[in-house]
Design goal:
globular, Pnp Oxidase, Chain A, 167 residues, 2 helices, mainly beta
Length: 167
């Protein structure tokens, strides 16, 4: 079976259509590692000591400026991207599932694009430093990260429960 995203809409603060996304590059969840070398260890290794900063890239076909007019570059922006994931098999489409990405952070780059006669506006690629990310497929949580509240969940399971119970 093959899953494919067929369409998506991006909503600003949950309810205003932000624009049309051509592509959304989600952050890579990458652990911050520390080298460990000690007597009794046959070799060196690394252990996780946190998470690297998260960054997302939004590539827009169009942005609805009237819905962005109250946004400040000094305040966090919350976007919800809703899409349809189609599962295809040998006999055709088998299933449709909602995919919802909730992402919040501060935009740190605002390219204004390229204007060219007879062509759509291009180059609207905005970069966000992400502080919150939640990915849901079929209504089930896949990943959730909240940097400021020490949340890191995979499949709904809190990966930081031991850390939080000791602090």
């Amino acid at each position: 079976m093959i899953n494919s995203i067929t369409n998506a809409n991006a909503y600003l603060n949950g309810n205003k259509l932000a624009g049309k996304l051509e592509e959304l590059e989600l952050p890579a969840i990458k652990m911050k590692m520390e080298d460990v070398s000690a007597l009794g260890l046959y070799g060196d290794t690394e252990i996780p000591v946190g998470m690297e900063k998260l960054e997302a890239k939004f590539k827009w076909n169009s942005v609805y400026r009237e819905n962005w007019k109250d946004q400040s570059p000094f305040q966090a922006t919350r976007l919800t991207v809703k899409s349809d994931m189609v599962t295809n098999a040998a006999g055709g489409q088998v299933q449709h599932n909602p995919v919802t990405v909730t992402i919040a952070g501060t935009f740190k780059e605002f390219p204004l694009g390229t204007l060219k006669a007879g062509a759509k506006q291009d180059g609207l690629e905005h970069t966000m430093t992400v502080t919150y990310l939640k990915v849901e497929v079929g209504g089930q949580p896949l990943y959730e990260v909240d940097v400021f509240n020490n949340v890191y969940k995979v499949g709904g399971t809190d990966q930081l429960s031991g850390f939080k119970s000791n602090t």
